[in-house]
Amino acid sequence: MRTKNVSFKWVLYVAAILICLFLTLPLLIIILTSFGAGTSSVFPPKGFSTEWYSHLASQKQFGQAFVNSLIASSGATLLALVGGTLAAMAILYYPFPGSGVLKAFFMSPMVVPKITLGVAYLILFSKMHIAGGLFALILGEAVTVFPFVISIVGSALANLKPADREAAADLGAKPLRVFFTVTLPQLKISLLMAGAISFVFTFDQVETALLILRQGSYTLPIQLFIYMEKWQDPTIAVVSVMMIVFALLLFFGIKVALKSAPAMEKMLGKK
Amino acid sequence: MSNQHAETTAIEARNIVKQFAGHTALNQVSLEVKRGEFISLLGPSGCGKTTLLRILGGLEHPDEGAVLLSGKDVSGVPAYGRNTNMIFQQLALFPHMDVYNNIAYGLKVKKLGKAEIKKRVAEVLELVQLSDYSNRSISQLSGGQAQRIAIARALVNKPEVLLLDEPLSALDMQLRLDMQHELKRIQREFGGTFIFVTHDQNEAMNLSDRIAVMRSGVILQYGTPSEIYERPVDSFVAKFIGDTNLLEAKVIESSGSKLIVECCGRTFEARNPGAAGVGSTGHLSLRYEYVGLGESAERCDNQLTGKILESVYGGASIRYKLDIGGGYELTANVQYQPGNPIYGVGQEIALGFQREYALFLDDSREA
């Protein structure tokens, strides 16, 4: 019985290691390729060099694309957070006939094919004469991440005690003050989580961006896509490594923020 | 006259009607509370006591009727515009703020100066005897401490009326008794008007200057604890406050406050607190401790014999269940001191009660 258990454990370990390899190997290959010496992305790389990293410095379009991506993702995330929180509050606090249907409607971008949405945006935004710019992308992507905010912030909102709001009102706070001093601070962590997921999700969004963006406002994934059509050198790998580093930084940043949230609150509260 | 009225009345509800989805939670309820009084709203759950409290605090709005705070009509004023404060059943301390910021919340809303806020928070923390706790987070407080902080957070605003919605119900028995003393002390020192909602009759008796007994959205009786205990207006109040024998009875003779009633197949002399006439039917209410056994039965206006069915020793008293024939039972609670006789099960014994203590409660009043 005991030996059986042990052998089964090993099966689990091996499976886990294999899955880890499967998940990390592509990333590993990218990292190795980025240090290659040749003029094309081949694996295994011929020789070691950092020339492509220095080469990247001269490729100004990637820097611009990175900034564009940052703007688009931040804008879409902010818009979705504000709109999603307000919508979740409306549905929860002021239930009306059809509020359930409305919630389902807000969740629908999750299942609608992104490419369909992209085509729809292209037509709509062209009519509005804003197609091609980052503003259009922000509007479009905000809709696609709206479901994350509605579900994450909405469930946090549902867990707040109504008595807390009543207590604040009883202590003399008007509704707006109640929101900013009692409701919002208790949503901090779920807002951070919904924001992080939305940001990451929109950062490498291709389908919509590909359809509605024009040259000059290309985001990073689109710029990579276009570059790859012309060149096969390791620049792509270098940019990918930079993106991995950025994602890791973001991930650990959020982890640290979440871990130190009570400590930070204490610091702010003491002031 | 009306001026004097406003001076002594802290808060008043006039003919309040409140309905929730077709169900009448409050039906023409009026209540007047004097400045400095400690009032309890007492009743079983669903009787409308919490709804009445929330209406007084402005968290609900009545469908009909008015709420007067110090003589001013505040019916249309929401909670944040009223100088009342509530202590919630779940306390509702803000979990994202420490003790200091919880207590200071109301003062910050009023935009008081920082020094003034600090001074008043320190004062109120001293009142609830938790001076060293201002930097604690809410999750670090014990049940009793959280209770005191909730009281402090309300009192720091110097409300005209403090509303308490069963705040002690989550505490265990001993802590509950401690907090009752604590509440009384705080009220004495603070000198405010307290309205306390509870379903616990002992709590209401221990704390209150006056008790309003509620059932099904109406106030059945509003009076001092002794009035309610000794002169309940109907059998519901008699049964809800204290232990009482309720025996079906019919009036066969009436002269002023003295009645002869037919009850358990016998006739008894009883007291008439209302205006029951010959032929009225109702209940005879006889508190357990008013039934005398053995020697003490000899001097009673009403005398009979019974057989002991059960005896429960309770230290200071013994509770006997007696069979008085005809399928009727009476319970007697007899003071006990070592040396007093203890009657055994099955023993035949004389029992009796005074006319003065046997209340005839007319059932036609209810309905």
Radius of gyration of chain B: 25 Å
Query: What is the CATH level 1 assignment of the largest domain in chain B?
Result: Alpha Beta
- Point out poorly predicted stretches of chain A: none
CATH superfamily of the largest domain in chain B: P-loop containing nucleotide triphosphate hydrolases
Helix content of chain A: over 70%
Helix/strand class of chain A: mainly alpha
User: Main sheet of chain A, how many strands, which sense, barrel?
Assistant: none
DSSP summary, beta strand count of chain A: 0
Please indicate the percent range of residues of chain A in DSSP E strands (runs of 2 or more): under 5%
Annotation field: number of helices of chain B = 9
Q: What count of helical segments of chain A does DSSP give? A: 12
- β-strand percent of chain B reads 35-45%
Rg over C-alpha atoms of chain A, rounded to the nearest angstrom: 23 Å
Helices and strands of chain B, in order, run as: HEEEHEEEHHHEHEHEEHHEEEEEEEEEE
Could you characterize the architecture of this molecule?
Chain A has 12 helices and no strands. Chain A is 79% helix and 0% strand. The longest helix of chain A has 34 residues. Chain A has a single domain, classed as MetI-like (MetI-like fold, Orthogonal Bundle). In chain A, helix 3 runs antiparallel to helix 10 and helix 7 crosses helix 8. The relative contact order of chain A is 0.13. Chain A has 271 residues and is mainly α. With 367 residues, chain B is α+β, with helices and mostly antiparallel strands. Chain B has 2 domains: 229 residues, Rossmann fold (3-Layer(aba) Sandwich); 123 residues, OB fold (Dihydrolipoamide Acetyltransferase, E2P). Chain B has 9 helices and 20 strands. In chain B, strand 1 and strand 2 form a beta hairpin. In chain B, helix 4 crosses helix 5. The interface between A and B is medium-sized, with 22 and 30 residues.
